[in-house]
Design goal:
The protein is α/β, with parallel strands linked by helices and about 500 residues long. It has four domains: about 30 residues; about 140 residues, Periplasmic binding protein-like II (D-Maltodextrin-Binding Protein, domain 2); about 100 residues, Periplasmic binding protein-like II (D-Maltodextrin-Binding Protein, domain 2), CATH 3.40.190.10; about 210 residues, Orthogonal Bundle (MetI-like fold), CATH 1.10.3720.10. The chain is about 60% helix and about 15% strand. Helix 13 packs antiparallel against helix 14. It is a multi-pass membrane protein. This is ABC transporter substrate-binding protein/permease.
């Protein structure tokens, strides 16, 4: 038996040697790296490739007002279109903050991330990267008046250097510019505004992005950063294990490099949107706030819609929670109390991110719906306490009188206690509703196009940091002041009826 086994092993070895004589190294490599997943099939089945990006990073991706419509343009968008076209599907661009992109990728909100992202060892532990599609360097953006004072990051000892949170520039400052102070923000536009207002002394940016800001913003200059970078190339991130998509993207990237599409087609196409070629008069007209009125109006519409729906469901759930706490049933009381304490003890942003990303692992909830759910659930906890305190403020004699007249507990609450309680809690409810309108701005972090989100787009498009914020403050004030007047009107009316 052992003899037959030894002969079998010899024959098997001979067969492998025979095959190796006819199969090339590239064929072996292709066989070993053959995709074992169905990501490409899924993309083709839904006929769209969803790309996540943070559109505040010119010339990679930024937003332009094209025929009154908010449109994401940029070099990365063109690369995304190329990959989608080669796959025979439509490209869908989903906007969100930069530090939320990889979370969105891991939770299935997007199929890929193209956002001027550099490949790092830390990121590669969570996602798979394509080949680099663009190589550039790292620069520092400074005020033009300081151009003779600073030469690279070593010149900023004791000074403040700003960078986008979660970016490679942020990590480079932490690791190499240890004598400098670091200031992290979510948006490059905020960092540039901080530079102009002397909150930071420099901003670390990709070389191409720094040039875009210098070309379109007066009083700025760029200098070499001096950072040692292993790879200054931008790559595309895919879900871990999505090798079929990685290989498809690499084929498209090879064509991009082969035909030099970025320099010959993509950047010239993007250049017409950056505005540096325009006359000063044309540039001022294009960047006026009136030209972006549709952006602000769209933001007001989303803000009012989110607030109105959240107020309605927040009030209903708050009423239920308050009645649970007042029911006398220990189980209901403890459940309602636990909910109220938990929601009031955790930040609204964390709740929002959990609903959008955390629950997204189980069910895909759209960003707008996630925002409405988060704001409604958060408001309900505060409304519940307002209603409970209002009901408790009513004298026990009212309940006893109603019950002595033969009214049931439910009817007593409905016709006697609750109407009186509403008069007491109306001012507090008004404050809660006004606060809810302002707090709803948090939904912008997941890409909901509310007023804050639209103001960010205007900042990115016009390179003006302060004026969009002024317009946004005025619009929020008009909304909240109008609501306050309406609440005051009903408060006076209820006070008059009680006399």
């Amino acid at each position: 038996m052992k003899k037959y086994k030894s002969w079998l092993q010899v024959l098997l070895l001979a067969f492998i040697i025979f095959l190796s004589a006819f199969v090339t190294d590239s064929q072996w490599q292709a066989a070993q790296t053959a995709p074992q997943d169905n990501y490409v099939q899924k993309v083709k089945a839904k006929k769209e490739l969803v790309m996540g990006t943070s559109p505040d990073f010119p010339p990679y991706e930024f937003v332009k007002n094209i025929h009154g419509k908010s449109t994401v343009v940029g070099m990365d968008i063109e690369v995304g279109k190329k990959i989608a076209s080669d796959l025979g599907v439509k490209l869908v661009v989903k906007r969100m903050d930069f530090d939320s992109l990889l979370v969105a990728l891991e939770t299935g909100k997007v199929d890929m991330v193209i956002s001027g992202m550099n490949r790092t060892k830390e990121r590669a532990q969570s996602v798979d990267f394509s080949e680099d599609y663009y190589h550039t360097g790292q620069d520092l953006l400074i005020r033009k008046a300081d151009v003779h004072r600073f030469h690279n990051y070593r010149s900023f000892s004791g000074k403040v250097i700003g960078a986008q949170t979660g970016s490679i520039q942020y990590n480079l400052i932490k690791k190499q510019a240890k004598k400098s102070k670091i200031k992290g923000m979510d948006k490059d536009n905020d960092l540039v505004l901080g530079l102009q207002t002397k909150k930071v002394d420099a901003v670390a940016l990709d070389k191409a992005t720094a040039k875009a800001f210098v070309d379109n913003t007066a009083g700025l200059a760029q200098i070499p950063s001096g950072f040692k970078v292993d790879s200054a190339g931008s790559a595309i991130a895919f879900p871990k294990g999505a090798q079929s998509l990685v290989q498809a993207a690499n084929k498209s990237i090879d064509e991009v490099h082969k035909h030099n599409l970025i320099n010959k087609q993509y950047l010239p196409k993007v250049g017409k949107y950056l505005g540096s070629h325009k006359s000063e008069k044309a540039s001022k007209k294009a960047n006026s706030m009136w030209a972006y009125k549709d952006f602000f109006l769209a933001g007001v519409g989303y803000t009012l819609m989110i607030s109105a729906i959240s107020v309605f469901f927040g009030f209903l759930l708050g009423l239920v929670l308050a009645l649970m706490r007042l029911s006398g049933n220990q189980i209901l009381d403890k459940l309602a109390s636990a909910y109220v304490e938990f929601v009031r003890g955790t930040p609204l942003m964390v709740q929002l991110l959990f609903i959008y990303f955390g629950l997204g692992l189980v069910v895909n909830i759209p960003a707008l719906l996630s925002g409405i759910i988060a704001v409604s659930l958060n408001s309900a906890a505060y409304v519940a306490e307002v209603i409970r305190s209002g009901i408790n403020s009513i004298s026990i004699g009212q309940t006893e009188a109603a019950r002595s007249l033969g009214m049931s507990k439910r009817l007593t609450m409905r016709y006697v206690i609750f109407p009186q309680a509403m008069k007491n809690i109306w001012p507090a409810l008004g404050n809660e509703f006004v606060s809810l309108i302002k707090e709803s701005s948090i939904v912008s972090v997941i890409g909901v196009k509310d007023l804050i989100y639209q103001s960010r787009l205007v900042q990115a498009d016009t390179y003006r940091g302060v004026m969009p914020l002024v317009i946004t403050m005025i619009l929020y004030f008009v909304i909240t002041f109008s609501l306050s007047r309406v609440m005051k009107y009903f408060e006076r009316k209820m006070a008059h009826e009680s006399k």
